Amino acid sequence: MKTIQSQESQYARSLIEASLDPLVTISTEGKITGMNQATVNITGVTREKLAGTDFFDYFTDPQKAREVYQEVFEKGFVADYPLTIKDHKLTDVLFNGSVYKDYQGNVLGAVVVARDITEQKRIEKELTEAIVLAELATGIAEEAKNKAESATQIAEDAVKAKQQFLSNMSHEIRTPMNAIIGFTKVLLKTDLSAKQKEYLTAIKMSGDALIVLINDILDLAKVDAGKMTFEQTPFKLALTLSAMLHLFETKIREKNLELVKEYDNRIPEVLLGDAVRLHQIILNLLSNAVKFTTTGKITVTVQLLQEDDEKVTIEFAVMDTGIGIVEDKLEKIFENFQQASSRTSRLYGGTGLGLAIVKQLVEPQGGSIRVKSKIGEGSTFSFILSFQKTNAEAGAETEIQGPDTEIKSIKVLVVEDIALNQLLMKTLLDDFGFEQDIAANGKIAIEKLSQKVSTGIVKPYDIILMDLQMPEMNGFEATEYIRNTLKSKIPIIALTADVTTVDLAKCKAVGMNDYIAKPVDERVLYSKIIGLIRKPAPTNPDKEKGNENSSSEKLKCTDLAYLIRLTKSDPKLMMEMISLYLEQTPPLIRMMKQSLRDKDWSSLHAAIHKMIPSFSIMGISTDFENMAKKVQEYASTRQQADGIPGMVLQLENICARACKELEEEFAIIKNTNP
Question: How far is residue 436's CA from residue 430's CA, in Å, rounded to a whole number?
Answer without folding.
Answer: 8
